[in-house]
Amino acid sequence: MIKPYLMFNRECEDAFKLYQEAFDGELLAMQKYGDMPPNPEFPVDESDKDLVLHAQLKLTENGYIMGSDGSRDCIEGQKVCISVELNSEEPAIKAWNILKEGGNVQMDLQPTFFSKLHGSVKDKFGITWMFTVM
């Protein structure tokens, strides 16, 4: 399944509340950075713990958006990522290896506390892809 992933700079929760109201949407998930298990490799400032790590909103019968507050300033044109959710590691690794050639890995494809694999890569055309293997 492919879902648009919207990146925000400290405004994801407010945006998703607006989108929920506009579409009579169903908020399926809203995790905060403070909900993450402590990790010395990814420290979270106290002031960032209420920011959105991941949100998912069902807008229509088959329409979803996801989003989060990024740790960097979001430049116009870089606020949307293509999120690819797969059930198997093999097709994710294949696509990942093709898309990273000539591109820029933003987060290595690796196991996380919320998925078998997760990572982000900007391809050589400037499109950011986020992979999650459930």
Write a structural description.
- The chain has 134 residues and is of the alpha+beta class.
- It has two domains: 74 residues, 2-Layer Sandwich (Signal recognition particle alu RNA binding heterodimer, srp9/1), CATH 3.30.720.100; 56 residues, 2-Layer Sandwich (Signal recognition particle alu RNA binding heterodimer, srp9/1).
- It is built from two helices and eight strands; from the N terminus they run βαββββαβββ.
Give the structure's gist in a few sentences:
With 134 residues, the chain is an alpha+beta fold.
Overall radius of gyration: 15 Å
Structural shape: globular
Summed up, the domain count is: 2
Question: Quick check: average pLDDT?
Answer: 89
The number of helical elements comes to: 2
Uncertain runs are none
Organism: Mesobacillus zeae
Protein name: VOC family protein
InterPro entries: Glyas_Bleomycin-R_OHBP_Dase, PhnB-like
Pfam families: 3-dmu-9_3-mt
Q: Main attributes?
A:
134 residues, alpha+beta, Signal recognition particle alu RNA binding heterodimer, srp9/1, 2 domains, eight-stranded mixed beta sheet
Question: How is the topology of this model organized?
Answer:
Layout: E1 2-8, H1 12-23, E2 26-32, E3 52-58, E4 64-69, E5 80-86, H2 89-100, E6 104-110, E7 117-122, E8 128-133
